[in-house]
Amino acid sequence: MNSTTLRTSLVAAAASLALVLSACSSGHSGDPPNPGAATGGAGTSASGKHHTIAFVPGCTCDPYYSTETAGFQAAAKAAGATAIVQGPANFQASEQIPVLQAVVQKKPDAIVIDPTDATALAAPIEAAIARGIPVMTTGNNARTDKIFTAIAAGSVKGGRLGGQELIKQAPQGGDVVFVHIKPGITSIDDRDKGFKQAFGGQTAYNVLPELYASQDSATQAAGLVQAAISAHPRLVAIFASNVITAEGAANAVRAAGKAGRIAVVGYDASAQEVTHLRAGNLTALVSQNPYTIGQLAVQNTVKYLDGDRSIPKDQPLDPVIVTKDNLNDPAIQNTLYK
To answer: Of 222, 225, 216, 218, whose CA–CA distance to 177 is shortest?
Structure first.
């Protein structure tokens, strides 16, 4: 994506947001609020009703979610809604389900959730809806058609863009590998799919089996990548699927003395990932712009609660490639995580 196209896309998105969120800045000021805390604002929506909206992030352990939470809370304040934010400490369905059930007991007017598992969260989400609480998802999907909308950066497209960037950075060909977490996380599965699409028909490259960092641990991911570097001397490119695996991959490449010699795309754009990008341990990032996703979640929920039933069922957003060359572009800076 070139700089002109990026600016055009982001300006259009900002203009759309401004229609409803004109009182809310799209930038990030200061540290994001504690994702586990509940905050609120007094006031009413355009319909004259006061709404309480809950957000259940995938965990409170990831800068993606703290950034999305910041956007959610800022937009709720701008819309005059009360925000409830409660998430599990770890990205595990077994931890998120009881959090969701506890939020349901608070009887919010609506719930926004980023499901940790497409299958495991489907029934708990449907149970909330059965109690008269409308639900929408952000980020990951759930296997239910009862939500009123889903908003996320297009993960297949993000995986494809990241793969295409790796081809640019390692044009000589060789072995490439995708660092996964575990099957069943829809966004990661889709990134893997897009990654494979990028390398489809590229005969100069050999796509190795996925590396599964099932504990979602940077240390575990680093160990897997170190082993892959040792076992595959022709390894030229790595796609790390989230903040944690990107941290592990960057550390492994640096420890092996391969920084700048192996192209490494990290999904997401946390402060630590940006530091690794500047140092050359990561060679590109794929940002999902979670702050804007949090804002849009509130915007769409308020519309729904005010009676708008024309909201699209699926609202994919364009992910953004971040490199050293465009990192200081103001439009790119607005997509980085805080």
So the answer is: 225
Which of 338, 224, 179 lies closest to 272, judged by CA? Answer: 338
Kindly report, residue by residue over 230-249, the tens digit of the pLDDT. Answer: 999 999 999 999 999 999 99
113 SS3 class: strand
Inter-residue contact 291 to 28 (CB < 8 Å): yes
Which residues, 6 or more positions from 47, have their beta carbon under 8 angstroms from its beta carbon?
305, 306, 307
Closest CA to 244 of 91, 119, 140, 72: 91
Give the CA radius of gyration of the chain.
20
Tens-place pLDDT, residues 91-131 = 999 999 999 999 999 999 999 999 999 999 999 999 999 99
* Number of C-beta neighbours around residue 42 at 10 A: 9
**CA distances to 44, 108, 131, 135, 270 from 50, in Å:** 4, 11, 20, 17, 34
Least confident range from 19-23, 164-168, 274-278, 307-311: namely 19-23
The neighbour count for residue 133, using CB atoms within 10 Å, is: 18
Distance CA(146)–CA(121), nearest Å, equals 12
Q: SS3 letters for 197-245?
A: HHHCCCCCEEECCCEECCCCCHHHHHHHHHHHHHHCCCEEEEEECCHHH
Give me the chain's average pLDDT, please. 88
Helix (H), strand (E) at residue 150: strand 150-153
Statement: the pTM of the whole predicted model exceeds 0.85: no
Burial group, residue 7, by CB count within 10 angstroms (0-12, 13-18, 19+): middle
